[in-house]
Design brief:
2 copies of one chain form a homodimer. Chain A has 6 helices and 7 strands. Chain A has 202 residues and is α/β, with parallel strands linked by helices.
Chain lengths: 202, 202
């Protein structure tokens, strides 16, 4: 399979890319690194990425940001950071990518446990993740040519514990091997419209 | 209680307003009708509404729109209709309204069954509804002064069957009395961070 991984050099992305590279042809796209440059907040950049790569069998997105801050300090514009990046960035990948996926191909998007179990400071991040969960269910009803779409929603991942554990009191870290398996289930499995939850205490 | 109902003249809104008016002081806000004029897509309009009404005990929002269309015909801008209206409109009601709710007061937002059980043509509407579900869970952790927030997510409501039943094959209509009870549970109950699902076949 030819698999395009947007964000394939990030904390989760590099483990996912390493795994898929063992038996597939992996193309890594990223804002500052990888084989192809893409800024997912810019739909023209997404379109140009697909034009340069041509057809693929799977698109995996492990990219996108949202602002973490106290709700009473968040401006309207702060919310739009996540709406333009992690939310519409992933929606636009599907909008443009549907024309570049081979029949039977798949999209795998990424969210996180905040959609279901938010913590302090995450009104924007939770909102964006929840939006993608419902979007994936809805768009799976409409994609053509047997194209599938799923989303992997991980808890606090093992490799990000040092950076994030203070924000996730009592959350059990998710081993990277399990996180990678979420993506494998989506790309190599047959399901569509699935929210693949990799959580460990809820 | 002094209850502000945004969208209090709509299909669901008028039943909710009629019910609460029996024992509470109800103020209706709307784009074109009601006691106060408000355009929830415009945060300045929201702020000005609260300045003119002063403090209230409950804010209920049954307003906001999102575009229904085939996914492969949706532009990026089409998605922003729902993001600016039903999503950020309700988020901004909470952002500004938190300063105008009396201690122990409540917000009740509105979504719909598409968040969990989308139908054809609803990628944008489903997305916005799912976003609000996760937002409500997240922001309930941060609101101060005992302020609560819940969201009512109804299935196809009885009074909208004529207009929408063709889009919801096999969905059992939800009696208006049950829909109204969703809002009563939020406003007169004690829960917070709750998604009050009024569904009948899932």
């Amino acid at each position: 399979m030819k698999i395009m991984i947007i964000g394939g050099k990030g904390t989760i992305g590099k483990k996912v890319s390493d795994h898929f590279s063992k038996k597939h042809d992996v193309l890594i796209a990223g804002r500052q690194s990888g084989d192809i440059s893409v800024d997912i907040t810019d739909s023209l950049s997404i379109e140009s990425m697909f034009k340069s790569t041509g057809h693929v069998d799977a698109v995996v997105c492990i990219a996108g940001e949202a602002k973490w801050a106290a709700f009473d300090s968040m401006t309207e514009e702060d919310f739009y950071i996540g709406l333009r990046s992690k939310l519409m960035g992933q929606v636009n990948l599907v909008r443009f990518g549907q024309k570049y996926l081979n029949a039977g191909g798949s999209f795998t998007l990424s969210t996180g446990i905040l959609a279901d179990h938010p913590v302090d400071l995450t009104t924007s991040a939770a909102m964006v993740n929840g939006a993608i969960h419902s979007f994936v269910k809805a768009v799976s009803l409409e994609l053509k040519n047997g194209i599938r779409i799923n989303v992997v929603s991980s808890g606090l991942v093992e490799d990000a514990v040092d950076k994030y554990e203070a924000y996730f009191p009592g959350h059990n870290p998710i081993p990277m091997k399990k996180v990678v398996n979420g993506y494998v289930k989506s790309v190599e499995g047959k399901s569509t419209g699935e929210i693949i939850r990799m959580y460990d205490n809820c």
